[in-house]
Design a protein that fits this description.
This protein is α/β, with parallel strands linked by helices. Strand 10 and strand 11 form a beta hairpin. It starts with a helix and ends with a strand. It contains ten helices and 16 strands.
């Protein structure tokens, strides 16, 4: 689905007043990246990194008082719709803070934290929902793929928050997964956006999706049982992640992953990244800026 289609699908989960305003907004070809419902407060939408308020007529305003204020009952109804009217079957998702709905949109859930008798965390008294509108951007990574020779290689996608790393990595996975056996370790459910066992985004015909697996465990499991040519995963954040990537690279697997860094200096200043960079796990670093635009493609030389 493209962003406009996902917005229409997402609107089905919103309170009626909000849904109508969002569709009027979309009719003017204004497509938000996020829609936030907060109990007793005005609906806000994020467009181009800027937060504004949504009016009943489908306009945007900087004045909170002119926005649609969501009632607690409307928020509760939207939450139950997100959980497909079966909250008990989404207990784990709610505890982790998000539910993936049809179309691949991730709904962030905010409420009062409670600890269950078994020590597990949970949430009650839901106070806000954040609908992140998913969208494919087929072709985003094609230029980089062509530039590196249209063949699998270790690729590290780098950029600041909001630079489009997830969108770019998803498209790169699609290209790789249409070229060779690829394993996608989708810990946060943001890349394939699985819903009832089906990926909501095109991640490649030859791609196996390990949905919800921790990166390190997922990479090692893929290595053991899927014989992949490539493994794709999102944000490298722990030494365990790095160790798993080192093991996969040692077995000849090509890797694609993302990280927070805006320059080569920042890459090498990250302690968790240094071992994989020094081992030559990644041959190229792709630096993004805003909405998946490629600022630079840098060959990485083993230190």
């Amino acid at each position: 689905m493209n962003t406009a289609e996902n917005l229409r699908t997402t609107a089905e989960y919103l309170p009626q007043r909000v849904r109508q305003a969002v569709m009027q907004l979309a009719a003017g070809r204004v497509l938000p990246q996020e829609i936030r419902l907060r109990s007793g407060r005005p609906v806000s939408v994020t467009i181009g990194g800027r937060d504004r308020f949504l009016t009943p007529s489908g306009m945007l305003t900087d004045t909170p008082e002119k926005g649609i204020a969501v009632t607690p009952s409307e928020l509760g109804a939207s939450f139950h719709a997100v959980c497909a009217y079966s909250v008990h079957s989404h207990v784990q998702d709610v505890a982790e803070g998000f539910v993936t709905i049809r179309g691949g949109c991730r709904v962030g859930i905010c409420g009062t934290a409670v600890t269950q008798p078994d020590g597990q965390a949970a949430q009650r008294q839901i106070t806000s929902l954040n609908f992140r509108i998913a969208g494919e951007a087929a072709g985003t990574a094609q230029g980089v793929w062509t530039r590196i020779g249209s063949r699998p290689a270790g690729i590290l996608i780098a950029g600041a928050a909001g630079s489009g790393k997830t969108t770019f990595l998803r498209d790169l996975c699609r290209i790789m997964g249409n070229t060779c056996r690829t394993a996608l370790v989708d810990e946060r459910g943001e890349l394939a956006c699985m819903h009832k066992g089906l990926p909501q985004h095109d991640v490649g015909a030859l791609t196996d999706v390990l949905d919800g697996w921790g990166r390190a465990e997922g990479v090692l499991t893929a290595l053991r049982v899927l014989t992949p040519v490539c493994i794709v995963c999102d944000e490298i954040s722990t030494r365990a992640d790095a160790d798993a990537l080192l093991q996969a690279a040692g077995c000849g697997v090509h890797l694609a992953a993302s990280c927070h860094a805006g320059s080569p200096d920042e890459l090498y200043s990250r302690p968790v990244l240094r071992p994989v960079l020094e081992a030559g796990v990644f041959r190229y670093a792709v630096f993004l800026e805003g909405m998946g635009h490629v600022r630079a493609v840098r060959p990485l030389i083993s230190a």
